[in-house]
Amino acid sequence: MIKIAMVEDDVQLAELLTEYLKQFNIEVTNFEEPFLALSSLNIYKYDLLILDLTLPGMDGLDVCKEVVSKHKIPIIISSARSDITDKVTALQLGADDYLPKPYDPRELEVRIKTILRRYNQNNEDVKENKKGIFKLDSDKREITKKGQYIKLTAAEYEVLSLLIKREGFIVTREEIFDNSDLLNHDYESSGSLAVIINRIRQKIEDNPKEPKHLQTIRGMGYKFLQ
């Protein structure tokens, strides 16, 4: 599930967006007060921040500046302020997108997923260069273990590459389907995803019956560890 932090003091708009995005497996936690949002960002991990500019107690541009200085998280500015200076300043501070109000919630949903795809792609180099047993080369669509090429089917590669990119975090089955061009929810009902996971374990684990790298987190999904 995609976890979003939103700073929006318009309660009705926040509720509308929260309900709309829920159907796309996007969980929104809204904060009417920017200081509460900043505190939460220090404690919890969110995939993206949606930030209004006109806020009580603290200007949204100042919030943006503080978030960029302390956290590595993509930011969408959602604001009714039409001054081009605000847009330019927000982007210069490090915001990833600026969505002027009013807008269709469908556009927000598309922008969220577009930015997260780009953000994850930009972070692949970090994962690929990280010291570890497994290396992911997205350009070649190859995964190696201790320098040895792992022969994978297209579906196996998609699943394993996603898990490597999210190393250390639980990835739900829904996230795997949402981020795959090959898998759809028919795999979920047929149990084929479990078959793919087992095939991957046969190829990467020293003992597939006691997996150390590709772990099942019961009731939640899967976690990959080096």
From TrEMBL:
The GO terms this record gives for MF are: phosphorelay response regulator activity; transcription cis-regulatory region binding
The reply to whether Ribosomal protein figures as a keyword in the UniProt entry is: no
Protein's name according to its UniProt entry: DNA-binding response regulator
Q: Which domain of life is it from?
A: Bacteria
Q: Name one GO cellular component term.
A: cytosol
Location of the Response regulatory domain: 3-116
* Sequence positions bearing 4-aspartylphosphate: D52
Please tell me whether the keyword DNA-binding is annotated for this protein: yes
CDD domains assigned: trans_reg_C
**What Gene3D superfamilies has UniProt attached to this entry?**
3.40.50.2300, 6.10.250.690, Winged helix-like DNA-binding domain superfamily/Winged helix DNA-binding domain
State the InterPro entries in the record: CheY-like_superfamily, OmpR/PhoB-type_DNA-bd, Sig_transdc_resp-reg_C-effctor, Sig_transdc_resp-reg_receiver, WalR-like, WH-like_DNA-bd_sf
